[in-house]
Each structure stands twice: as C-alpha cells, then as structure tokens.
Input
Amino acid sequence: MSNLPTNMKAVPDMKKLLTWTVLCIGGLAMIMPLIFMFITSLKVGEEVYTLSFWPDEPTLENYIYLFENSNFLIWFFNSFVVAIVTTISVLFFDSLVGYTLCKFEFKGKKLVFVAILSTLLIPTEMLVIPWYLMVKDFGWLDTYWGIMFPGMISGFGVFLMKQFFETVPDDYIHAARIDGLNEFQIWWKVAMPMVGPALSALAIFTFLGNWTAFLWPMIVSNDPELYTVPVGLASFSGEFNTDWELIMAGASVATIPTLIVFILLQKYIVRGVVMSGLKG
Amino acid sequence: MAQVLLKNIAKYYNKTKVIEELNLSIKDQEFVVLVGPSGCGKSTLLRMIAGLEEISDGELYIGDRLSNELEPKDRNIAMVFQNYALYPHLTVKDNISFGLRATKMDKQEIEKRVAHAADILGVTHLLDRKPSELSGGQSQRIAMGRAIVRQPEVFLFDEPLSNLDAKLRANMRVEIKKLHQRVKTTSIYVTHDQVEAMTLADRIVILKGGDIQQIGTPMDLYHTPANVFVATFIGNPPMNILNGTLTQNNDNSDENWCVKFSDTESLSFSIDKPLTTYQDKPVKLGVRPEDIRVLRNNEQPQSYERVFSVQATVIEPLGADTTIFTDIAGMEIKAITDGRHTIHLNDPLKIAIDTRHLHLFDAQTEERIFSTQVSVKVQN
Ligand SMILES: Nc1ncnc2c1ncn2[C@@H]1O[C@H](COP(=O)(O)OP(=O)(O)OP(=O)(O)O)[C@@H](O)[C@H]1O
Ligand SMILES: [Mg+2]
Output
C-alpha cells in the first residue's frame, strides 16, 4: 500500500524530468557561446586558439587594453546614444502612427497602411545602397543622424502598435472626448497608458536591435570616433590577423546592457513575445 | 438643465441609412428611455446627441442651442458607458475628476464636487482604489460619479447596467431612479431591457430599424401599443398574437364582433366602434398573458371572459406566478396563473380570456386598429 502514492507520482515526475532535460540542454546550447566568449576574453597570446576550458593564467589585460588603448568607451557611448534615441523615436512615432491608423477614418487609410506594411518585405541589405546615396547627398556621412535615421520609425512597430490599440475600446476615447481632451491628449493620456506592455515590448526589441546593429552603422561611419560597439569590435579584425581576445572582451562588456535590459524587463519581454506572437 | 430637440435627424454610413427623418422632443428634466432590438440605432442616436458621431442630416438642439457642430465637450452633456470606460491607470478619485481637471477648474471646487458625488453614490471609501480593484457595481457607480461631477445639462446613458448580474441590475436601476429624482437632470437612457425601460422612463421611445415605432409613457405603451412590434416588445412574457378573421355577429347578443381562428374556434367580444372596414378581413388579435386566466375546477367564468379548452404544453413556474404555454387553433399562447395553482403537463385545462383587454391589429400593416380596454361596455 505504502508505495502506491510514489507510483502515482512517478508519471508526472517523468514528464518533469524530460522537460527539464530538454530545457537544460537548450539552455546550455544557448549559453555556451557566451561562456566561450567570456573565457576567451581572459586569455592572451597563443592560448586564444586552444580549446582549453579555463585559461592557465586568466588575465584582465584585454579589458585594460580595451579601455586604455582603444576607442571602446567612445563606441560604447555611441551605441548607447544611437540605441536610446532610436528607441524613443520609434516609441513615439510608431505609436502615434499606429494609433491614427487604428482609431481614425480617413481617405487613403488602407493605402497608407499597406504601404507601411510593405516596407517590412524589403530586406535591409537592399535598402543600404539607396540609403547610402541619400546620406551622401545630404552630407550625413559620419554623423549620428546618418547612423540613426533609417531606424527612427519602424514599419513593424507601427503594425504592432496598431494591433494593440485595437484592444483599447472606443468608449475610452469617447469618454475622454466628452471630458474635453484634445486628440493628442487622448492619445497620450488615455490610449498610451493602456498599451503599456506593448510599448515595453517594442522598446526592448528596438533597443536590442539597434544595440547590435552592424551592417548599416559600418557602412555609414568611416570615422573610428563614430563607430558603434559592433563596428568598433569588427575593426579589430584586420586583413592579416584578428585580435579575437579583444573582440571577445569588448563583446563581453557589450553584453552587459543587454543583460540588464533582459533582467529588468523579463516579464514584459515574455508577455510582449506572447502578445505579439513573434519570436524575440 | 435643458430640453433636447431632434429635428429630422438622419445618419448614413457611406450609403447605408441607419436613421432617417427622426423627430423627438425631450422636455427639461424628463427621463426618456430609448429601447429597441439590437442594431436598431439606439447607440448611434445617443452618440450623435453626444457629438461622438457626426449627424448626417437634420438639426439637434440642446437647450436652445443648435448643437450639430459643437464639440462633445461643449455640449454640456455627460455620458455613462456600458463598459464604464474607467481609465485603468488612474485612481477612482482621478477618474471622477478627470474631466474637471481637463477644464482647468479650480482645485478646491473639484475636491468639493468629487466629495459631493462620492457621497451621493456612497463610494467615498473607494476613492483611492484603482478600477481593477472594484466590483462591477462599484465601477458602475464610479462611472456615474464621473458624469455627475460635470453637472451637465443632459445625462446620456448607453446600456449602463447590461454588464451587471440580474440582482445588481435591479438595485442600480433603483439607484438611477433615485439619482434622477434628486438631481432632475434631463436624461436619455438607452437599453434593450424592457423592464429597465418601463421602470425608469417618464417616456419610452421604441425604435426599430432606425424608425420610431411609438413614443409614450410606459402605461401608454403597455395599454395602447401602436403596433404588433410594440405590443410584443413591452411586457413579459410578451403579448399573445393570434391570427384570425374579423366577422360581425348577426344575433342580437351584446358581443357584436368575433375573431374566427378556425372553423371551430372563435372569440366574441363587444365594442362600440364600427369596424366594418375590417369586416371579413384577416386581423391579428393581441391578448396579454396576464389577461388569460386558468380556471380552477368547476369555476365559472365572468361574463366578460371567453373560455377555451386546452392542454398545457410547457409549464414555467416562477414562484409568485406560473407561465403556461398552450395553443388555440394551433397558435401558441401563454397564460399567467397564480403560482399556488398546481397544474400538470397535458392536463385538460379551461382558460378564460378577458375580453375587456383585447387589442386588434391590421394583419398587413400590423398597426393597431383598436383596443377594447378603453371603450368596452361595462357588462356587470
Ligand atoms: N461605423 C459604422 N459603419 C457602418 N455601419 C454602422 C457603424 N456603426 C454602426 N453601424 C450600423 O448601424 C446600426 C445601428 O447601430 P447601433 O450601434 O446604433 O445599434 P444599437 O441599437 O445600439 O444596438 P445594440 O443594442 O446592439 O447596442 C447597426 O445596424 C450597425 O450595423
Ligand atoms: Mg448599442
């Protein structure tokens, strides 16, 4: 009799075990490159190319070099400015445009929406050349604006926000109109607070996307003082040799803001991904 | 406070007409209920009065002002919504005062008004909560509070009670009535619940497909419905409608008219109005369930009652009374009987129709021809 309960428990335990095993393997597979990155950043010289798990003489030399002898701090600052400004801009404009497309009727609305959606179909690689020509003509080469301008509004964000504003019942907007708010105030004071989770999700995606952006920042900036972190790190990779240990050290530091964002906004990321039905 | 006047109001969405040529005059301090089936344009009409929906044609006067082009905030109205529309990120207090703060009103005056409204509605202890921490009934009160503090000339309600359970709805109905008796603000109230309409309204406006079917006091609509639609809309269970042919009785009895349902079944009654234009024409006869009685064993009918032998097909006991479903000449009818009167399914029954309260409708137009109620001969 006494072993009956344990028998009954055995089935869910097996299920749990299986789930945990799969999750652990998945988690390990994900985190391995990060661990490898960090360990490599502690190595110097020939050891970089060995597969040893822990360096014989772990050292912070690479970090010291990075901060003292390279422009890394400037790149970090540049990345930060670019990511923050584009995120704020995307939040503001995408939610404003999304709200307008969602809650107002006007001629040509469908056309505008389809036009915005169609920008999602064009890969960045195809846009790079026209962007570059624009930037050159306008004299925006080697400026923050040149790096940031393609990301100031995102078609994806407009679409996301439009969908989320659908969840705000019209009655709230009607109530606010009777309360005497103007349309801008209704958007800002009534509708925006009601799509908070969507805004957080969009903020995270935009920040991370811009923090890690490589192709366009590399093309548009020639001046090392204007490199972002990914571009700067890439510059350690020369024609004849690549300073992997420096790249890894820089990448390790660059991961920190990402980690902070993830830890702080974890629940919003999960909710945002679930709500918007996309993969992070 | 103000009167509201709608002159030839129309509403089109692109080409589809939702409301056409609607005329309605609402007196100062009056409580008017707009009632009708889903999709008949009640909310549309209310939103046009509020200024949330453009008026396609016609003139709207609130007070003495032509208000077609006024912004919602300038119309001196307040509206209570079905889902309450309480801002989730604001406290109850901030929700109630939201509109006043938007107008940059003096802080002390705002405090005073909020306190007063909270007092009237008994929600003072809820002021610091968030809407998510309120029950349905409490949210409803806060939504009303938000309307009250504006001290508007007109209250607009769009199905304010339909999200509440039956008991709470009955309570809030009384609260709204009390509130109106207290502040006496002109009110326009939309519902599709005829009980709410009957109990709250000074006058009811019955809409169907964007057209007004009848305007009148609850008792007007109940006793002299303008057509079959109104007759079956007001009253629960709804009025029985029996198809038949109107014939004149030749014998010299008091019952000079008769509706024949079939070769064997007919109902004779007396009225002093000439109905010759409808003689031998199809008509619809309306009888309210409460005007049909189930006779107890050996009970004799009154002189004004006509007896039919039937069988109960469905019995709905409601406690105080019981609804009996049966049929006359194949047409279903409902009768209400005393709840203490035990009746079994398929028992042979005698039901007595009170001929003092009959309604006769044109079979084609469904317009009312006559109600016996007003002019029946006193026969006792
Ligand atoms: N934006 C719109 N475009 C086109 N037709 C509309 C629009 N809004 C409402 N209608 C139509 O107008 C009619 C009246 O709608 P309304 O919302 O006023 O009905 P209602 O009487 O309030 O119904 P309910 O009891 O379901 O709330 C409906 O037939 C509806 O389909
Ligand atoms: Mg409605």
In short: The longest strand of chain B covers residues 16-26. Chain B has a mean pLDDT of 90.
